[in-house]
Amino acid sequence: MPKRELKPLKYKPDSLKGISQKTVEIHHGKLYAGYVSKSNEISEKLGELRRSGKAEGNQTYSELRGLKLGETFAINGVYLHENYFGILGGDGVPRGEIKKAIEKKWGSMEEFQSYFSACGMAARGAIPIIAMDVYEHSYFIDTGSDRAAYIKAFFENLNWDKIEELYQKAKNYEL
User: Fold this and answer.
1) Are 77 and 35 in contact (CB under 8 A)?
2) C-alpha angle 77/82/87, rounded to 5°?
3) Among 38, 41, 108, 151, which residue has the fewest nearby CB atoms (within 10 Å)?
């Protein structure tokens, strides 16, 4: 498998409203970079294990199982952070077909934002088209424990053109 590479930001780290340059640099340059690095390290170890002929599956424990669990965690971290950083850097003004789809499902952008914000306050997770990182590393430097202030800033920085692009890719995808 080809090595994963750290994707650069498409905006300046100091250009976001309510999310500081320091937070962006630590979040992107250390945490996300760590997921990329770890996924490459695990991929290399999986290749070595496969080539050794000693790859054994065991539901309770095996080296293969441990590496596959780590691989899943690291690659999910890469994917979600690439989505998260990829949809920031915009003006926060909803537009496109995704706006219409959101309004159809939730009644209004305000209702969607209210519900999405509540999810951000209550849980750790993501909607595949819009990933909002609500682990403390994404906001604590800027807002301390005020997660709601961070969520407000998150919405003010969304790139709805990029979100529309992701929506167009995802809307016809079936599980």
Assistant:
1) yes
2) 135
3) 108
User: What burial class does residue 36 get, using C-beta atoms within 10 Å of its C-beta: 0-12 exposed, 13-18 middle, 19+ buried?
Assistant: buried
Global confidence as pTM: 0.81
Tens of pLDDT, residue by residue over 126-174, are 757 899 999 899 999 999 999 999 999 999 999 999 999 999 988 776 5
CATH superfamily of 21-86: Fe,Mn superoxide dismutase (SOD) domain (1.10.287.990)
> Which of 105, 93, 108 minimizes the C-alpha distance to 159?
93
pLDDT at 57 (0 to 100): 77
Radius of gyration of the chain (CA): 18
Return the pLDDT at 58. Answer: 74
CATH 3.55.40.20 in the chain: give the residue spans.
97-170
User: What is the per-residue pLDDT for 173?
Assistant: 63
For the chain, residues with pLDDT lower than 70 are 124-125, 127, 173-175
One-letter identity of residue 75? I
Give the separation between CA 98 and CA 81, rounded to whole angstroms: 21
What is the C-alpha to C-alpha distance for residues 130 and 155, in angstroms, rounded to an integer? 10
* Distance (Å, whole) CA 73 – CA 165: 26
